[in-house]
Amino acid sequence: VFIAQSRASGSHRDVEDEELTRIFVMIPKFYTEEDLREKFKMYGDIEYCSIIKNKTTGESKGLGYVRYLKPSQAARAIEECDRGYRAILAEPKNKSSESLEHDYYSNNTRQEPRGNVLPFCGQPEFCSFEKNESRIQESVSKRLSVVSRLPFIQEQLFALFDLVPGLEYCDVQRDPHTNSGYAVIQYSTAASAIYAKYKLHGFEYPPGNRLTVIFLEDGSDSSE
């Protein structure tokens, strides 16, 4: 895992505190903070764990944070923990988009086009996730179109989208006249494609080059 410091960020310590030591995970709703700590303490020294709860009912939303003392420990946790946790680096606390990310993560990444639960293998407790009753208004599918003004390198784009579990294939194409980049990405579930679009649409890759990510019709029933 290679983590680069943004030029726009403040001191290295600020970046380390805000962006590189805190991870965001999807967890079963019955987990306590102690359960969360127990699952992730093997990867390093934990400063604190917290579970996101409904402000009205106090019920867990099935999402949590784990804060490590070192960036290397957070990176190891993301790499080595069960894929069912969907572990990613957390947004900095001072970003206003954080609450939107929580709601999106909670409401949309549980959609599964062929059943009522996401296929969390290896840890039976993940089967407790229920299917969200709300429907996604945008027409979605398991396939994405990625457009860039710069050409893509197959291996690099694959590695980027493979950060989201369930990547099935990455087909990179190039327009010989414009030299722009175009690729088709497909995931095993609509849930993975939804999250990939949410996280990577507008992402600068390489820096200064924004990716445009949209859904492609794949023939499936998007209402599922």
From TrEMBL:
Pfam family membership, one: RRM_1
Keyword Transport: no
Domain RRM: 21-95
Record keywords: RNA-binding
Listed SUPFAM superfamilies: RNA-binding domain, RBD (SSF54928)
Keyword Membrane in record: no
Gene Ontology molecular-function annotations: RNA binding
Domain of life: Eukaryota
Record-given protein name: RBM45 protein
Organism of derivation: Phaetusa simplex (large-billed tern)
Taxonomic lineage: Eukaryota, Metazoa, Chordata, Craniata, Vertebrata
Gene name per UniProt: Rbm45
